[in-house]
Every structure is written in C-alpha cells, then in structure tokens.
Amino acid sequence: MLKKKGLTLNELLAIIAIISILAGFLLPAIMNASRRCRPPRGCINNLHQIILAIWTYTMDYNKNFPMVAGTAGGAANLDPLYSRYLSTYELGKCPASTSPVPTTSWATSDYAYNTKGGIGLTESDAPDTFVLGDSAIVANTTAFHSYPKPYNVVRHNSSVASIGAGADLTNAQSVLVK
After folding, report:
1. What does the pLDDT look like over 120-165, one tens digit per residue?
2. 72 inside domain
3. Reduced to 3 states, what is the DSSP secondary structure of residue 23?
4. Are 133 and 162 in contact (CB under 8 A)?
5. Which listed residue, 34, 128, 144, 153, has the most CB atoms within 10 A of its CB?
6. Is residue 53 domain-resident?
7. What is the pLDDT of residues 46-57, one digit of tens each?
8. Is 31 in the same domain as 98?
C-alpha cells in the first residue's frame, strides 16, 4: 500500500512564518510607493474649503469678492475670511508642505489668490478663471510641495482640480499673486 505524504504541522508553521516575514518586508515599501503616487488630498480639501468661504463671503457682500490689498504688487488679502468664514489658519497650509502653519496672515500661506491685476475678481468672470492655486505656481514652475506632482487650482466655477506639472502655467502665473 502506498502511503499518502503530506505536510507536517512543523513544516506548515515554517512556511507560514516565512511568508509572514516576506510580507512584513514588502508591505511598507508598497504602502510608501502608493502614498507617493497619490496627489495630496489635503491640499485639494483645503482649497475646496477656502473657495466655499470665498463664495459665502461674496453672498454676504453683494457679490463682491474679498478685496485686494493696496500694495504695488496687488497682494491678495484673504484675511477677512478668517474672522468669520474660515475657522483656522491651518487651511492656508498644504499638509504635504514643509512650511510652517500660517499664524497671523494669509501672506504666509501655501496658496495664492487671483488679484486680477489689482482689480479683483467679479461674479461675471469666465468659469475657467483661476481663483486660487498653489503659491509655487506664482513663484516659478517648480512647486514647493507638489513637484513633480500636479499643481492644485480652483477655478471660478468652484471646480477644484490638479493640473499636470508639465502644463502651461503662464496664465496661472499672470493671475495668481502671492
């Protein structure tokens, strides 16, 4: 009679232990790779909250967007939003950024606001007009916190999107002023 061979309990436990050790080595690497491939959702969520605050502001102030400060460069002033429409300055910091959390002013945030050449936005602007974006778009074509990942922008129609790092950012640089 032939005897059927099988795995002993010790052999089975050894196989399970080896597979567990290999999985322990591979899972952190896989998780890290998938995290790097994803666009930073925190930035997009922050931009969405800020655009909602801007639209709420416009409803309260007769369809006028937040005013543009009177500096020569037309620096944007979204500080009035923080007293009533935004709960914290932490929304001005992209979670993937290495910069500190703004504590007293929008000027130190990771995002830029469209000053429209010092005139300011209006409700009748084109739907694809940039309202907010990564401040790195303004400074140059290398983002502080997202390069080589996509740049985050908010358009006048309240759509929050990521545009490719290789995209033509001439329009964004001309309208987004920090």
Report:
1. 777 888 887 888 887 766 655 444 444 556 778 888 888 887 776 6
2. yes
3. helix
4. no
5. 153
6. yes
7. 888 888 888 888
8. no
